[in-house]
Specification:
The chain has about 350 residues and is of the alpha/beta class. About 35% of the residues lie in helices and about 15% in strands.
Length: about 350
């Protein structure tokens, strides 16, 4: 055992190699829909939740290292990757339910959740809906902290956006998009930091079914004014829930100032900033990402949840309230910032 000042002792672990077969996609049918996922390793469960338009493939290079000490589950969210893409509910609450149901079929009762971008919102929603099944939360460039979001996503959320996405599949458009993204990278713009990933997202929408699922998912969290879902109003519930925030300081999709806002709103959270990284810090510096996840899971105890404690937090309310009632004289600024961040919340 190794003692870390201010933290729980680090548990000794047995490293285990991961076979190539474990990284292949597996499938489960839940509620009549096929759900794709990757699963590897042994040990405490670690769930990796990708962002919008992405898939479990985004974690592929990290899974072998993380699976040496964990049972890693990386799902393709419904409407993404190799999972089915029905005309269905693509809200963060529905995704949290889907993650719960998949884990249940796999015999996993609780897990540490790692969520990127939209997946960060899903991870937070899972922790809110199912705190008794959440051991820790790791948010990576997560959505749901403020209204700001990349203008391209706001544009794609408006009516008629499916025509724009369809145009990307026209002959020659892939080359033009590649040239434009390459130029942004050459000019060292923030959005250029994520050039390879942006092109991958374009390639991930090959047909109308995929594009429709993407638009439905986007409209559940973004409109022409920006993000429409916030987790700031219930961040106080993370008291006792080990939480870590990982962000790139050049994130052009979800600005890094959202990381500082979330860190301030989450009591006891840990914040790690990746310098010169964009929206995918786990691609920019995978070794550091894996090291931080392993250190965090090894040096923190699982969340200590109880109905009594949950009720106590709810009755007390968030900062700026007394027994659930607004106390604007004491903390009017908090109420104002919450109202500006979003006009409605995930429930």
């Amino acid at each position: 055992m190794v003692d870390v000042p201010g933290r729980s002792p680090v548990r000794s672990v047995r490293l285990r190699p991961v076979g190539d077969g474990e990284l292949e996609l597996k499938y489960r049918v839940v509620h009549g829909y096929r759900r794709a996922f990757r699963m590897a390793g042994e040990g405490p469960a670690l769930v990796l939740i990708h962002g919008i338009g992405d898939s479990s493939a985004t974690w592929a290079e990290l899974i072998p290292d993380l699976a040496r000490t964990h049972t890693v589950i990386a799902p393709d969210l419904l409407g993404h990757g190799a999972s089915d893409k029905p005309r269905a509910d693509y809200s963060v609450a529905a995704y949290a339910n889907g993650v719960r149901d998949l884990l249940t079929t796999l015999g996993i009762e609780s897990a540490t959740l790692v969520g990127h971008s939209l997946g960060g919102g899903v991870a937070m929603q899972f922790a809110y809906q199912f705190p008794e099944r959440t051991e820790r939360v790791i948010l990576v460039s997560a959505g749901g902290v403020g209204r700001e979001v990349n203008p391209v996503l706001r544009l794609v959320s408006v009516p008629g956006a499916h025509l724009l996405l369809s145009a990307l599949r026209l002959p020659g458009m892939r080359l033009q998009v590649g040239l434009a993204v390459g130029l942004m990278r050459l000019l060292d713009t923030d959005i250029g930091q994520d050039a390879p990933e942006l092109l991958t997202l374009v390639d991930a929408l090959p047909d109308e079914t995929s594009r429709n699922a993407f638009i439905r998912t986007l409209r559940a969290v973004v409109d022409w004014r920006g993000q429409v879902v916030t987790m700031l109003d219930r961040c106080y519930l993370t008291q006792g829930m080990p939480t870590m925030l990982l962000w790139g300081d050049r994130d052009s999709v979800v600005p890094v100032r959202h990381a500082y806002r979330a860190h301030e709103a989450m009591p006891g959270s840990r914040l790690e900033i990746f310098e010169q990284a964009g929206h995918f810090p786990f691609h920019s510096d995978p070794a550091r990402f894996v090291a931080l996840v392993e250190d965090f899971t090894a040096s923190t105890a699982v969340a200590d949840w109880s109905r009594e404690r949950w009720r106590e937090l709810l009755v007390r309310g968030r900062p700026g309230t007394v027994a659930g009632r607004p106390d604007t004289a004491r903390n009017r600024q908090v109420e104002c910032e919450l109202k500006e961040a979003s006009e409605r919340s995930a429930t």
